[in-house]
Each structure stands twice: as structure tokens, then as C-alpha cells.
Amino acid sequence: MYKKILVGIDDSEDAKHAAEKAIEFAKRDNSSVVVFHSVFHHLSEMDLSFSGLAGAGAPVNFTIHQDYIKAGSQLLEKTEKLFKESNLEVDTRLIYDIHPEDYIEKQAKEENFDLVILGCKGKHSKIERVFMGTVPSSVINNTDCDVLIVR
């Protein structure tokens, strides 16, 4: 039924369940699966310099961004291991420069994904959810393929 599946993950339990659901579908339908993690984060894109300290924020900004890249890479390695334990191939992608919801909408169209699978709640603050909404709500409203939100 589903031949191409796109899975967005972070380090939440719901995202882990989304990856497990993708494994179920891949086994059942012989689907190809792409799992991605976006390190694009508002804090890492902010200028953290303080007035009077020219350029002081740049090293902090770079360190935060590098930490997100390292954590994202480790998360994708862990997810790839989960697929290999199920004797499945998976394509993993670390995304640097685009919000996850925008990446999903773009790739769903460009690569003709049949299904997007996401966890219900990710690792975001309540403030981010209030002002920006959630990735799943944006994907549901802006993506033309089937979307499965997993708890």
C-alpha cells in the first residue's frame, strides 16, 4: 500500500514509536523509508552576543549548533540500528537549514512520498507550541499525502 515513507524524528518517545510504526509498514508493504532529523533550531540561529561585547555570541552560537548536529547524528545512528535489527534498509538524513514541517512539505512533493509518519509530541517548549504550533499540525494541514501521527 505505501511504497515511500518519510519519517521525522527527534529524541522523544513518540518519535521512537513513529520509527517503529514505519518498520511495521516497511515490512508489510516492502516500502522504502527515509528517516530525517532537523537540527534547525531557533536558539542555534539566534545572535547571542551581548551589547558591548562585539562578536561574543558567535562562539556560543557555534557550540550550540554543533551540539545539535552531534545529537542529531547520534539519534539517526540509533534509528538506523533499529531498522537493521529488523533486517530493513533505511535512508537517514540530517537536515540543517529548514524547519522540519517545511522539509516534509517540500520533500513529500518532490520525492512523491505516500506517507509521512511523525510522533504526536516532540521535544519543544510550551512557548514554541503556542506561538508556532506543532510540526504535526502544520504537516497535516499542508501536506498532500497521507499523514500518520503516532503516540
Quick overview:
This protein is of the alpha/beta class and 151 residues long. The protein has one domain (4-150): HUPs (Rossmann fold, 3-Layer(aba) Sandwich). The protein has six helices and five strands, in the order E-H-E-H-H-E-H-E-H-H-E.
Topology:
Layout: E1 4-8, H1 13-29, E2 32-38, H2 42-45, H3 57-85, E3 91-95, H4 100-110, E4 115-119, H5 126-132, H6 135-142, E5 146-150
Parallel strand pairs: 1-2, 1-4, 2-3, 4-5
Helix pairs in contact: 4-6
Total number of beta strands? 5
- Counting DSSP H or I runs of 4 or more residues, the number of helices is 6
In CATH, the homologous superfamily goes by the name HUPs
Spatial strand sequence of the major β-sheet? 3-2-1-4-5
Main sheet, how many strands, which sense, barrel? Answer: 5 strands, parallel
The chain-level mean pLDDT equals 85
Protein described:
It is a single chain. By secondary structure, the protein is an alpha/beta fold. It has one domain (4-150): HUPs (Rossmann fold, 3-Layer(aba) Sandwich), CATH 3.40.50. It has helices at residues 13-29, 42-45, 57-85, 100-110, 126-132, 135-142, and strands spanning 4-8, 32-38, 91-95, 115-119, 146-150. The model is unreliable at 47-54 and 127-132 (pLDDT under 50).
Notable features of this structure?
about 50% helix; Rossmann fold; alpha/beta; 5 strands; 6 helices; globular; about 150 residues
